[in-house]
Specification:
One of its GO terms (molecular function) is NADP binding. By secondary structure, this protein is an alpha/beta fold. The longest helix has 21 residues.
Length: 480
């Protein structure tokens, strides 16, 4: 099977923070792959903008080195050379006046103009203001902003107001790379393009839902940022919240931006407050020099590197069905998955003790993107009816063929920006609603003086997290 490439219009894409880590690891390699696949038409121009003083040639060397590191053997020299020909650079002062006239001179009339803010949120307002003051942004221009979208409701509102002073909502693309993952989009296809699951997708048939994002790495070089955020702000408020919305949302009337985002917003607004007894926070320990406290260089830190929550959606479809969310660093394995755990049949004709296990639909986001449905069958052989659960497994890599390369999330999302398609991007009111739910949880544990429980690296997290489900007669799925 060969994936279909849908072309986009010619564009000028400016990447502020063009010498940064995200640009080097994700943005430029992703754009190169889109270029190789023929999705970057003639007449496109990609401009890196940052404080560093360098010319076009030096920046092309920088991008070429990034491709060599993150694309590796799949590079084709002629294609790399052609891609680098459309790369330009502009030294710029985000808070000053230098460089803006040069950037304006690089822009052309006609192509779509997009501006990627791959910088600290504190610079968003300065960039937005100067793009307008210097006549670089047009009414059709688009801006892409990276998380974090504020640190709480007040700062999120302030950030939205800052951006809205210069761009309207249709021009603002708040990027969450989880929504660009192929499996996340397939979650919508599984639900809304098939009759098989949707009749069962409710509290009558679903016992509970587990959403897990586990990492084997620690905070590493992000210690300064992470210690002011923690797992709740860094992961739950955005990534896990978006996955929860896609599972719990009602079918939109159309697959278009506002229809999808309206339904996601309804889910967030239907979330119940979370009681203290339904939250577990943890911090990884370990040998001296490798604990969370050592890595963030703050021996008094009360920031969590792990969090698990029991969440309820109070609406007609989901009332009474718990959603268990967990995410953490330095855990046993690297995995992102959603598990839909179905209820037992109302009556077993095979009697007790016949090995029945729950039907489970598992959507794997990483690694090995795919879906797995566990169902009960008769175990082969004579001697009675013995039941066994087996997987109906679909790995995307195997099911779609070796010729299909699943694109990185950033590739899809950047191309959606150029198309002007906001379906997979968060709207301002959606971000604010998520913070309105998150803030009381954070304020609650601060008011109580709660401290995270310790857990050993390479485990599945704090023991209290196991009890969160055990009290309900349930168990977490194993982190592989």
């Amino acid at each position: 099977m060969v994936s279909r490439v849908i072309p986009v219009d010619p564009f000028d894409l400016v990447i502020f923070g063009g010498t940064g880590d995200l640009a080097r690891r994700k943005i430029f390699p992703g754009l190169y792959r889109r270029f190789v696949d023929g999705q970057v038409p003639d007449g496109c121009r990609i401009v890196g903008a940052a404080r560093s003083e360098m010319d076009h040639a030096a920046f092309r060397e920088f991008v070429g080195a990034a491709l060599a590191e993150f694309i590796g053997d799949s590079q084709v020299p002629d294609q790399v050379a052609a891609f680098l020909d459309i790369i330009f650079y502009c030294p710029i002062d985000a808070k000053g006046t230098s460089g803006w006239a040069d950037l304006k001179a690089l822009m052309r009339d006609g192509p779509v103009r997009a501006f990627y803010f791959s910088v600290a949120p504190a610079l968003f307002g300065d960039l937005a203001e100067r793009l307008h003051d210097h006549g670089i942004a047009t009414p059709e221009s688009r801006i892409v902003v990276e998380k974090p979208f504020g640190k709480n409701l007040a700062t999120a509102k302030a950030l939205n107001a800052t951006l809205a002073a210069h761009f309207n909502e249709a021009q603002i693309y708040r990027i969450d790379h989880y929504l660009g993952k192929e499996t996340v989009q397939n979650l919508m296809a599984v639900r809304f393009a098939n009759i098989l699951f949707e009749p069962l997708w409710n509290s009558q048939f679903v016992d509970h839902v587990q959403i897990t994002v586990s990492e084997t790495v620690g905070v590493g070089g992000r210690g300064g940022y992470y210690d002011t955020s923690g797992a709740m702000r860094d992961m739950v408020q955005n990534h896990l919240m978006q996955l929860l919305c896609l599972i719990a949302m009602e079918p939109p009337n159309k697959f278009e931006p506002d229809a999808v985002r309206d339904e996601k917003l309804k889910v967030i607004r239907a979330l119940d407050p979370v009681a203290a007894s339904e939250i577990v926070r943890g911090q990884y320990r370990g040998p001296k020099g490798h604990t969370y406290l050592d890595e963030v260089e703050n021996p008094e830190s009360g920031t969590e590197s792990y969090i698990a929550l029991k969440v309820h959606v109070s609406n007609w479809r989901w009332k009474g069905t718990p959603f268990y969310l967990r995410t953490g660093k330095k855990l046993r394995g690297r995995a992102s998955e959603i598990a839909i755990m179905f209820k037992e049949p109302p009556h077993s004709i095979f009697g007790e003790g016949e090995g029945w296990k729950q039907n489970v639909l598992v959507i794997r986001l990483q690694p090995d993107e795919g879906m797995n449905l566990r169902v009960m069958i008769k175990e082969p052989g004579p001697g009675g009816m013995r039941l066994k659960d087996v997987p109906l497994d679909m790995s995307f890599a195997e099911a779609l063929g070796a010729d299909v390369i699943i694109p990185d999330a950033y590739e899809r999302l950047i191309m959606d920006v150029i198309r002007g398609n906001q379906t997979l991007f968060m709207r301002g009111d959606e971000v604010e609603a998520a913070w309105a739910w998150t803030d009381p949880i954070i304020q609650g544990w601060r008011a109580r003086g709660d401290m995270p429980a310790g857990y050993d690296p390479g485990t599945s997290g704090p023991e209290d997290a196991l009890m969160l489900l055990h009290r309900d007669g349930r168990r977490w799925r194993e982190i592989a």
